[in-house]
Amino acid sequence: MADTGRELFEHELRDIYDAEHKLINALEKMANDASDDQLTQAFTEHRQVTQQQVGRLEKVFELIDRAPRREPCAGINGLIEEYREFNKEENPSDEVRDVFATGAASKVEAYEICSYKSLIKLATQLGLNEAVTLFQESLREEEETLREVEQMSEILGKKLS
Ligand SMILES: [Fe+2]
């Protein structure tokens, strides 16, 4: 039974730790799938950023004296599954696939932004100030990525018939 803020914090930490790992793989696939060069580059860059975010989460595990552990993140699983299904079932044109991918990436970023915001709240309550700083860095990166993919969505969307 989880009945403390600390337990909830650890659960949320393991959840985002799993999500970031899954995204490293998903972003590689999305970069390969994209036909627009800028979009491929954006996904490739965010994949590198995601690797750094995994490193920050490992630092947080260290700060709380816990071994890094992943808890299957059903939310991100669902979003990745949606992306795969659409491409498999609908056989989209390159242009449609690219715009779809920007939307899928926005959904992922929105999920991650909410996760980091809750972690920041919980860590603040628990007095884990170093963890708060680490989460804030990742939150800033996720917010920047969201802005970037939204912009790309608008640009690429205009090319659709
Ligand atoms: Fe991330």
Please provide a written account of the structure:
The chain contains five helices and no strands. The protein has helices spanning 5-33, 37-63, 74-90, 94-125, 129-157. The radius of gyration is 17 Å and the shape is elongated. Bound molecules: fe (ii) ion. Fe (ii) ion binds next to α1 and α2.
Per DSSP, what share of the residues sits in E-state strands of 2 or more residues?
A: under 5%
Residues in helix, % = over 70%
Shape: elongated
The small molecules bound here are: fe (ii) ion
> Mind telling me the C-alpha Rg?
17 Å
Distance between the termini: 53 Å
Element pattern in H and E: HHHHH
Main β-sheet description: none
Rounded mean pLDDT is 97
**Segments where pLDDT lies below 50 for 5+ residues?**
none
Number of helices: 5
| Structural class by sheet pairing and helices | mainly alpha
Report the strand count. Answer: 0
Task: Describe the secondary structure blueprint for this structure.
Elements: H1 5-33, H2 37-63, H3 74-90, H4 94-125, H5 129-157
The structure holds fe (ii) ion (FE2).
Provide a short characterization of the protein structure.
It is built from five helices and no strands. It has 161 residues and is mostly helical.
List key phrases describing it.
single chain; 161 residues; mainly alpha; 5 helices; binds fe (ii) ion
